[in-house]
## 1
Amino acid sequence: MLLDALQKVGHIVLHSLSAVGRMGLFLLQIVVCALTPPWKGRLVLNRIVFIGTQSVLVIALTGGFTGMVLALQGYHALSRFGSDAFLGPLVAMSLVRELGPVVAALMVTGRAGSAITAEIGIMRISEQLDAMELMGLNPFRYVVVPNLLAAMIAMPLLTAMFDVIGIWGGYLIGVRTLGMSGGTYLAEVAQYLEWSDISGGIWKSLTFGVIICWVSCYKGWHAGFGAEGVSRATTQAVVLASVLILVWDYFMTSVLF
Amino acid sequence: MDAMIRVVDVHKAFDEVPVLDGVSFSIPKGHFAALIGRSGHGKSVLLRHLAGLVRPDRGQVFVDGEDLAHLGGHALRRLRRRFGFVFQGGALFDSMTVLDNVAFPLRECLRLPERSVRERVATALAQVGLSGSEAKLPAQISGGMGKRVALARALVLEPEILFFDEPTTGLDPITAQSILDLIARCQRDLGFTGVMVSHQIPRVFDITQQVLVLHRGQVRFDGTPEQLRVSTDEVILGLLGAEDAAGSNGRSRNGLET
């Protein structure tokens, strides 16, 4: 009985370790392909449009409303201590250091990451990836590397947009609705927000882009059979990428700030 | 005659279930071989071994003298540029038009100027009777047309070896026969070595010089279509009999319908 239980635990540990190893090797393969020619510039541009441009609306909406909620909640908390003048720095620092990179990454995971997994999964089950291999081509260069490069370029830009729209949303609530001075809001933001806050957020978003692409492509590449396999892979990709983003965010925060 | 493909004692199992169990045969250069047998007896798995998509657990697969199991990424990719593969479902890139699908290997493998690419695509599409379909997407064409596009894409690099995985599955008998005739004509014109997994018995015998019967992961028969027709092996008789029965059923159905 005890032996059976130990055997099961051992099996789970071995299975998990081998899955981590496979994912690690997959990432290594992406990096090697990304660093060596030939690069597919046009495909990278296409993917920037898909991951970046097509995410602008959702990023603008979530960024704006996140800033507005932060301003509402922050104002009431700060006014209890008579510190409502610090609403601008509160909103800006929360967004730039933390919420901007994380929420933007979660939004892109849901919108683009899931689509990448489904797309690659369908290419896998309909043998399109095998067809590329049999032409003597490396499918990694066509379906994985362009996504990685595009995500690394698009994520910092989307995050910057999220931050700016969020700070503007906070301004809208703080100044127009709650009656704060606009000059105070902006002046305090400029005084307290430092370049290290901004660069830290940008570094985070860059690594989140790698995580989104890595997990989404891996799950699509190893999708099971049929529609059910692709659907399961898509769900797993979104869940795993979201969890990894939050876990990695903790480590990045503890190192960067 | 020199063997273009030589398979030596290949074993393969998935989840400890043996699929190939000591398969050995060879196919001479320029020959067209049919790989037949009942469903689930390892034909497609064997074809994937020949193309280097699957590696054997034991045994060797030689293509033009090179052991696929010992070729690394770059060397294997170089060898594969001499292959063509027509998949059962076509495996066309669904985001690309017919023109871009057929042009893809020319642009990516040969890096030809766009004008040459378009000329060669037009020739390949004319070869399979699809001139004028360049702008269509795979979702906008019929199953038979899709198979023709897949064949054009496989032929456009003028491969020395062409693999077909049930290229007529899912097609009506007339379209299936036209695809088989097309494959036979291309093989005569281009002289490639071919291997075709097919259930089109006995029609496939008209276009092949060699027949391999795979049964329970082993080669049960390796010979010419003429030798197969006079075989007294019960497995082969069963295969031919089943097809005869299917044919006569089809005829009687047709008779009733008319």
## 2
Amino acid sequence: MFGQRAAELIRELERASDDALPPYKAESVRGICEEMQGIFEANCRDRVNLDADGIEQATAVKIQHAMHFRDTAMSRNKRCLIAYHYNRMERLRNLRWSLGGIIPTAIRQTLSEKETEWFSNYSKALTNYMMDVAELPDQDPADPQDPVVLDLTVHQRPPKEYFIDVKVLVDYGNYETQDGETIFLKKHMRLCMARTECEHLIRQGILQHVQ
Amino acid sequence: MILDNARELSDRFYNYLLKCRSRGVEFNRLLMLAASDVDSVCAVKILLHLFHCDHIQYSLTVCSRFQDCVDAVAAAGDSVRTILMINCGAAESVVERLNVSDKVRIYILDSRMPVHLRNLYSAKQVCVLRKFSQEDIQQIPRWEEVFREEEQEENENGAPDGEGGKETDDNDDVMSQSSQNFRGDAGRARARKRREKERELREWNSKRIAVEEGYYKNVYYQDSSAVRMFELAHLVSKDDQELFFWAVIGLCEMFMQRKIGSTEFVEKSVALQGHVIRLTHSIDLENQQNFRITYGQDLALRFYRQWSIFESLNNTPYTVAIFRAWENKGHAKLHEFLADMGLALAQCKQTYSAMDFNIRRDMMEWFQAQAPEWNVPDLISGGSFLATYGFNQKFQINDMALGLFACLTVNSDKSSEDNFHDALDTLSKHEFDRLDRALQMGRDQLVVLRKIVQSAFEEKLFVGMTHYVQVCLDNISTAGTQFAGRPEVLIPLAHFLQETYVVMSRGQRVKKAPFVLVAQLQPPSTDGTGDFLHVVGLPGADNVAAGMKNFMGKAFRAAARQAKVELELDSFEECLVRIGKRSKTAFLDALIIALSAAPTEPQSNRH
């Protein structure tokens, strides 16, 4: 029956969890393409038959209906194929934003050749864009020193609060923040600091987040 | 500079902080130094809420004595441009003591009076955030009484220099005799003038000392810092029930710790009444889960809503004193009182929440009817704040204040800073369990204090001197290590002891006599070299009741000077000092002399 494999393809992608990439079904895709090819050829043949002289009115109507049916099946197959590839591409793009430019080998094996190519192109484009954004207007473009990249992939969600309350757990001494402020950290102090500043201090166990 | 009314507070203080945010890196952090008392915890809590709303960055350091403030400021170094001191610092000349540059601005929020004159008369650098009543303003010496004009001082300094300059002049230039003669005359005139000036200065100086002595003599409290901060929050439209709750705790603590008198407390509560109505009004009445505060008449028994009526009567200082509850006779009297009222013993010994609903409803009236007969008018408070969380049991905010005090002074392996942070967390939103625990701790502390008082009476530790009453407690370290192990607890303990003693002895003279408590907190060491005693001084009981004006700090200092004993302030309270155990006798002897020199002082302090 027409369209069965295409529906199966879509169903399979749907069954996988939202951001997982199931292996690329090259076999099915090829099968569907062959099916479409067959349909197309059958339609061409019928077209020739339709143009033949002396064809009965009833037969002509029958042939027309058959052609219409095949055509619908073909466009349905086409839609399924596009949806399949488009959805895989979306998932692949999310991978780029969440995992970065290098795909883990486990995922790499599930990709088709074209997809790998697309991924590397997309990755390149994104990197270029990030460099463009970060470029300062007065920077000399001829000077290729350590290119500044504004990493857009980090902090994609706005923080709930920019400043958080922290308690100091150990005597630390002076700590210099990124904007040049010196903060003296002593045990039992309570401070309000920018979240970005104290994230790693919290991880080191110097600060504790107070709710 | 004084920032007196609430509008100035928001304009000059809060707006300055807001402006600092955008003025650059070195300005944007506020250093907060907070004393570890309940009022300060509440004020800090309110401020943190405001700072959180407006993204004002701060560093908060908890200080137990002034040296901690000095250390904190020194450690912060040049990175700090704004300092806010909460319930500390008013009594010191902060610019000098903290040794800060003139770029630093210091705000002082302190409930303690008197404020150091240098802080008051600072042009811009030091701001005192508090209300001054007309009476207070009159008590402040005028500027010219305590400070000399700049140019006059310059003249004083300039005179020796001028002389020095003239001498060198003389050596160098011997050409003109006549000019030297002229100079000699001028010199004599100048010398006469200088002598006159010196005499003037001496007179002024002695007058200044007298004026300052009069000004600094009494330490007293006014105006809770937490309430002050609540007013600020109200003005910047960021107040809510929760903030109001904290402010009321601050106020109640001042009353419960006898920092302000009952009339003053009632006045201030009435002033807060408007807020109660305004804030409760906005609450959705459908949603009973909300936090509510009400104000009204209630029994002045401590913790009775979490306890049983009997236990509460048995432990509240007021009733303990009246009934002498620790004696068998007193116990019987207490039973009689309850029987007169018609309260069944089974009911009174029951947890309050489990008592009959009808009894709970009518109990207030019964107490009111019995109070005049038994001469216990203060058993019903004119007004107290009640708080309730959803369907939980109501509690008095007075009790909450005591509970928080117990949290702050609990003597475990935690430091006082940890206690402070715990207390801050206790006040967090929707933490009914923690509030409950705090109430429990307050109750436990009260029981411990009562036991100490009982043993003091049983062992007859009260010594009536000619000019004051003295109690020496040596065994306090064993009586209640957890709840009576920190020096701050000695102040409520001293109040408890004094109140009970005054009611017991019934004399007019006892009422006026100052009260001294000497206590040893740590167990005695083997060699006795490192042993310390804590001494608490309270003025006469009538003075305490009217809003304490405590002159004992000054008396202690005079005695220490006399006896050449080293005196250590262990907190911001002047009336609580620490001395070496070995110098106890010398110190107490000197104290007798110091207090007998001014026997009428307690009376003269009253208005």
